[in-house]
Structures are given as structure tokens and as C-alpha cells.
Design a protein that fits this description.
Elements lengths: L5 E3 L9 H8 L5 E4 L3 H10 L6 H7 L4 H11 L23 H19 L6 E6 L6 H10 L4 E5 L6 H9 L4 E4 L12 E4 L16 E6 L2 H10 L6 E5 L32 H6 L4 E4 L5 H9 L4 E4 L1 H4 L8 H13 L4 E4 L9 E4 L8 H6 L11 E4 L5 E4 L5 H6 L13 H8 L5 E2 L3 E2 L26 H8 L13
Parallel strand pairs: 1-10, 2-3, 3-4, 4-7, 7-8, 8-9, 9-10
Antiparallel strand pairs: 5-6, 11-12, 13-14, 15-16
Length: about 475
């Protein structure tokens, strides 16, 4: 695979959707779909009537026909569900997830990658959060069935992903360790996935995708290279100005007067040490301009990963009202992004863009009932009996405390799972009247998107972003992956 100068960020839930990745890959760069909560996204698209018939087209190409048909029959609603009817509540992932959920996970990842690859011959990638460990293996397998070329993963230390890719490429049993708070020395908890239980006939070996670890330090890069259980093909280096989850500052947490984490010299990546690892790397977080791409190349990077600029382009999966509001703020010079140290249940700082009608409004946040019914960001913990329990600091505080959590950890936490799916245009409705609010995450360089805005107010596209970024850049990187 020819290495791209631009990797499109795998953002949010459904923001980096198949349309966006397809549009970027058509420009010869690496389009990336977000792999987060694709099971929910597919199920809700089908319940919305599958506008355009795209999900049906992807399902028709899935190799296990009976599995695809089960999903179609279970979730598709002709013409879409009534406006006030809630979406079907899926089971939450667990160590022994029900078969219907595993099948949905496999198929959803296949469909998203298939559609992103449709109509062109360029590579497509997929992005996962390491912290969402339970669905990793069936999700990755589904994307590999569709021919994904790159798997990128961050928000954790994905040491065990490379070997999982090797095994899944040959339809072999793969396992992945589950982090369990309170686990005792010698106790190990793992998820297990056996492709043979889902295949409907013999299949040839799959292509093993390249693996890019998303890191925030050269130390983590060295750890991945030395300790990963298989081949690491490169790194995406995300600084603290990147959107979504940020790595916490190293050392004691200090906050600005407005309550944002303070990052210092210890949080800067030593690019000399990173280059010494001998693997290609891309810089991310504030690199969405031609000058920053040129700077990255001069520093020895293969290129850059850009998220925010693509998140607001015409092909983005962000719901139209939020995108229009943000673009209006950008045009007026009023765009603002807050690095919230409390919002995410993971405990990682999470960037929140100011958007009316979203959870960036404290009053709206205060009126939302505390509900955790999707569970992607739940914490696994060891119960007194030695079993695995699940808790989330965004659930009702008394419930969280009853599971051994500290009440202070519930303060300011937001249900990122429900909110991000709402931002992609599929908000859950409760009791026929309460609509889940969204939340928008963005990098600190949101104000710089003025460079992409058209004077006539028309939408800018993914192709516009790529063309703008490549102004003055070398037309041919010439490097290839191994």
C-alpha cells in the first residue's frame, strides 16, 4: 500500500461514516470509518427505513447470507419507524455477548467498510478505541471480511491487536485481554472470538490489514514496538489539541482558571526518538493546514491525520443542524472548544464544542436523566465473588456507588455514548417524548476551518479539504508499507 500524506480521522460515532471515508479515499488519501458503536448505527439506520437503500446493498454483499438476512428481518422497518417510537434496545456487550449482538457487530463493520470501498480502488481504514474492548474481535473480523486495509487504534495501549489480526486473517480463534478494575494478581479476564462459529462455509484466508497504533508519546511508541505481540506498521501521534478523547497530562493534574487540563513539556513527543523507531508516523492535532502538513513532512513524518476539517465537510455524518451551527460559529469567529476533564466516563479529558441544543449547555446537561443503557464506556470491575461487574460514572450516582464506585467520580460525567449517537442523527427517544441530546467533539483548531469556507456560503467537501491541504506538498510520498 502506498502510504498516504493525509489520513482522515476516524471520528466520533458515525461522523467518520462510509460516505466520508469513500470521498477521501477517492482522492488517493486514506479514508477512515469510525468503528465505534457500528452495531447501534446499523440497527438504527435500518429502523429509520434504510434511506437510499445503502444498508441493503451492503448486506447483499455480506458472505454469510443467512446472517445478513436475520439482521434485515430483525431491524428493518419499511418507511422508517414512527417519529416518537424508540429504537430497539440492543443487549449490552459482555464477556458472553448473545449471538445476535455478535452477528450484528460483524455485519455492521462489514457494511461500513464495504460501502467506504465501493466504487474505487484505493485503501480504506477503520478506527477503534482500545478502551471499548468487548466488541474488538468480531468488529475487526467484520471489517476484514470487507477488505479493510488499515486498522488504527488508540485511547489505550493495544499491545494485543497485532496478533489478533494475524489469527483472524486465517479465521482462527482470537482472544483479547479485558482490563478489570480490582483484579487480583494472577487473575486474567479475556474476550474470545471463534470465526468458525459464524462461518456458513469454507472461506479463503483474508488479507491482514496494516496496524497503526495511535499514541501520545514516544515512550508509548517504543512500548508498542518492543512489546506488541505482532507487527506494528506505524504510528499516528495525537497531541492534546486533537478532538475527542485526549491522553491525560503527565504528572499531577493541573487546571486552568476555566477548568481545562494544562499540558506541558512532558506531554510533547520527542520526534527524534520516534524517528529512531524506523516506522512511518503521522502527526495529528492541529495539523489541518498546508503549512502544518509541510512542517510535519519536514520533521520526518509521513504525513498528517486531520479530523476537524473533515468532520464539518458535506460528506460528514454529523447531523445537519449541529454542522450548520458550527460552521456559522466558525464564519463569525465565535467557535469555541472546551477540554472537559470530567465529561467522559473514561476519565480521559474530552473536547466539547459549544453548540446550542447540545450537552455543552450546562442547563441541558442538568435536565438529562442519568441513564446508561448502551454501555460502551462502562468500566469492568471485580465483584466480591470474583465475577466481572459493570459500572459507569454517568449512570445514576446511587447505582454507581452501590457497585463500589466513588460518588465524586460521578460529578460532571456525561453519557457520551447516547450523545454521540444522537449527534450522528439517531437520537433515542424515551417515553415517547424525551429526545436524547447530542454532544459535539472537535479539535482546538476549529476556528481555522474558515480557510475551507466558500464565499458563497455553499458546503465545502472532502475533496476541497484534500486539495487545500496538499497545496505545495510533494505530489508523491514514494514510501510504501511492508
Amino acid at each position: 500500500m502506498k502510504l498516504p500524506q493525509i489520513i482522515q480521522g476516524g471520528m466520533g460515532v458515525g461522523i467518520s461514516n462510509w460516505r466520508l471515508a469513500n470521498a477521501v479515499s477517492r482522492q488517493g488519501q486514506l479514508g477512515v470509518v469510525s468503528g465505534t458503536a457500528l452495531d447501534q448505527i446499523l440497527a438504527r439506520r435500518l429502523q429509520d427505513g434504510d434511506p437510499g437503500g445503502h444498508m441493503r446493498r451492503g448486506l447483499d454483499r455480506f458472505p454469510m447470507r443467512a446472517m445478513a438476512e436475520r439482521i434485515w428481518q430483525r431491524y428493518y422497518i419499511p418507511g422508517g419507524k414512527p417519529e416518537r417510537q424508540p429504537y430497539v434496545e440492543l443487549p449490552t456487550h459482555a464477556l458472553d455477548s448473545p449471538r445476535e449482538l455478535v452477528e450484528l457487530c460483524i455485519v455492521a463493520n462489514f457494511v461500513e467498510v464495504f460501502l467506504a470501498r465501493e466504487g474505487h480502488a484505493h485503501p480504506v481504514g477503520i478506527n477503534y478505541l482500545e478502551k471499548i474492548q468487548l466488541p474488538h474481535l468480531p468488529s475487526i473480523y467484520g471489517s476484514m471480511l470487507a477488505g479493510v486495509a488499515v486498522v488504527a487504534m488508540g485511547a489505550g495501549i493495544p499491545l494485543k491487536i497485532p496478533n489478533a489480526l494475524d489469527l483472524l486473517a486465517n479465521h482462527q480463534v482470537a482472544t483479547y485481554p479485558l482490563h478489570v478494575t480490582g483484579a487480583r494478581p494472577g487473575e486474567e479476564f479475556v474476550t474470545r472470538f471463534d470465526p468458525a462459529l459464524y462461518l456458513e462455509g469454507p472461506m479463503a484466508a483474508l488479507a491482514r490489514p496494516s496496524f497503526l497504533a495511535i499514541i501520545s508519546s514516544d515512550v508509548l511508541g517504543l512500548t508498542m514496538q518492543r512489546k506488541a505481540n505482532g507487527r506494528v506498521d506505524g504510528f499516528i501521534v495525537e497531541g492534546p489539541t486533537a478532538g475527542g478523547h485526549n491522553a491525560p497530562p503527565r504528572g499531577k493534574l493541573q487546571l486552568t482558571e476555566s477548568g481545562e487540563p494544562i499540558y506541558g513539556d512532558r506531554d510533547r513527543v520527542d520526534l527524534v526518538k520516534l524517528r529512531a523507531l524506523g516506522l512511518p508516523f503521522w502527526l495529528a492535532g492541529g495539523y489541518g493546514s498546508p503549512d502544518k502538513l509541510a512542517e510535519a513532512l519536514a520533521l520526518g513524518a509521513t504525513g498528517v491525520q486531520v479530523g476537524t476539517a473533515f468532520a464539518l465537510c458535506a460528506e460528514s455524518g454529523m447531523r445537519a443542524d449541529f454542522r450548520a451551527t458550527l460552521l456559522r460559529h466558525v464564519a463569525a469567529g465565535e467557535a469555541r472548544v472546551y477540554t472537559d476533564p470530567l465529561a467522559s466516563p473514561t476519565g480521559f479529558p474530552f473536547k466539547v464544542a459549544g453548540v446550542e441544543g447540545s450537552l455543552s449547555d450546562p442547563e441541558l446537561y442538568a435536565t438529562r436523566p442519568r441513564i446508561c443503557d448502551l454501555g460502551y464506556l462502562r468500566e469492568a470491575y471485580r465483584t466480591d465473588s470474583g465475577a466481572v461487574g459493570w459500572r459507569c460514572p454517568a449512570e445514576p450516582a446511587n447505582v454507581y456507588v452501590s457497585k463500589g464506585g466513588a460518588v465524586d467520580d460521578t460529578v460532571g460525567r456525561k453519557c457520551i455514548c447516547n450523545a454521540l449517537i444522537a449527534t450522528a442523527g439517531h437520537p433515542q427517544i424515551r417515553a415517547g417524548k424525551y429526545l436524547e441530546p447530542g454532544v459535539v467533539t472537535s479539535g482546538d483548531d476549529l476556528p481555522s476551518l474558515r480557510q475551507f469556507l466558500h464565499a458563497d456560503g455553499s458546503d465545502y467537501t472532502a475533496a476541497d479539504v484534500v486539495a487545500r491541504l496538499l497545496v505545495g506538498a510533494s505530489p508523491d510520498n514514494s514510501r510504501t508499507s511492508t
